[in-house]
Amino acid sequence: MTMTSQGKNASTPTEFRRQAARAAGRLRDTAVQVGHLVEAKTPDPVLARAVRAARRLRGTAARAQRFAGDKSFASARAGAGRAAAVARTNRTALTTGAGVLAAAVLARKVRRARRARRQS
Which segment of 51-55, 56-60, 69-73 scores lowest on mean pLDDT? Predict the structure, then answer.
């Protein structure tokens, strides 16, 4: 696939930095929202794990933003490749985190459904 000036894959370093900053902001906002939802409705053991995961996510978003601002486009691309490789090798940790989050969301939905049944 060739990269043209009009193609989707053609990004200048400045555009890449802007996209990375926006993505980091979205990640940070999502982490905050998830943290509040989980904290409000989750038992203590699950809450502690979710709070740690949210902190890690915020730190990752901040590092990604700094990385995009400090590095050249080529080194950012290489770093993204390394990050993808690490994610592939640590699938168990990622799956565990996703499972904890899914369990917290499911528990919240169940509690809301029970509350709605009691009130009606």
Answer: 69-73
Calpha distance 52→54 (Å, rounded): 5
Task: Return the exposure string of 72-110: e unless at least 16 CB atoms fall within 10 Å of the residue's CB, then b.
Answer: eeeebeeeeeeeeeeeeeeeeeeeebeebbeebeeeeee
Distance between CA atoms of residues 61 and 24, nearest Å: 5
Q: What does the DSSP assignment read for 67-110?
A: HHHHS-HHHHHHHHHHHHHHHHHTHHHHHHHHHHHHHHHHHHHH
Name the pTM for this structure. 0.31
